[in-house]
Automatic annotation (TrEMBL):
<keyword id="KW-0732">Signal</keyword>
<dbReference type="Pfam" id="PF13590">
    <property type="entry name" value="DUF4136"/>
</dbReference>
<dbReference type="InterPro" id="IPR025411">
    <property type="entry name" value="DUF4136"/>
</dbReference>
<protein>
    <recommendedName>
        <fullName>DUF4136 domain-containing protein</fullName>
    </recommendedName>
</protein>
<feature type="domain" description="DUF4136">
    <location>
        <begin position="25"/>
        <end position="178"/>
    </location>
</feature>
<feature type="signal peptide">
    <location>
        <begin position="1"/>
        <end position="17"/>
    </location>
</feature>
Length: 189
């Protein structure tokens, strides 16, 4: 009976690891804004909101800024260093402690009389959920015109995997941004 309990515990633990939260991406935009008017951009880290010392570190901010720069250039936008940009792209990160709870709620056979007994084992897993938020503003009005965000576990990766994780996360957020400068958002979809 103990072997059965050990095997079921290992199975549940493996299932919880396999079912760990994946990175999910969402976005929102202002449908009244004609994106054709924008051609240039400037990237800024939102210094007030990057409070997390790990995910919001300068190292990770550079990773995110580099990935944003690649994505926007790939869509036909031009970076502006010292002049006025049409778009201001600000990003920030944050982290929250989360807990995943899972129950196997099974019946185990009762030896002797043929009755079953409930065997409810509850497993919990604590983890840190990270979020990357990208806000795109009209530089003239300072109104937000597009926002994309991703949440999941970014901070658990090894050093080399972390570069890839941040690059892929930003790319997955930005794939929802209009394809090229001079194209209406509705026409890009």
């Amino acid at each position: 009976m103990k072997v059965k309990a050990i095997i079921s515990s290992l199975f549940i633990a493996g299932m919880m690891a396999a079912c760990s939260p994946a990175i999910t991406v969402q976005y929102d935009y202002d449908p009244k804004v004609n994106v054709r008017q924008f051609a240039t951009y400037r990237i800024e880290a939102d210094r007030q909101r990057n409070a997390d010392p790990i995910v919001g570190s300068n190292l990770n901010q550079r990773r995110i800024a580099d990935a944003l720069d690649q994505s926007l250039k790939g869509r036909g936008y031009k970076p502006v260093q010292d002049g006025e940009a049409d778009l201001v792209v600000r990003f920030f990160t944050d982290s929250r402690d989360r807990q995943q709870v899972q129950s196997n709620n099974t019946w185990s056979p009762y030896w002797g009389w043929g009755w079953g007994m409930p065997n409810n084992q509850v497993y919990t897993r604590n983890y840190e959920e990270n979020r990357v938020v990208i806000n795109v503003y009209d530089a003239r009005t300072n109104d937000i015109i597009w926002q994309g965000w991703a949440k999941g576990q970014l901070n658990t990766k090894k050093e080399r995997e972390r570069d890839t994780a941040f690059r892929e996360t930003v790319a997955s957020i930005m794939k929802n941004f209009p394809e090229s400068a001079g194209q209406d958002y509705g026409a890009a979809r």
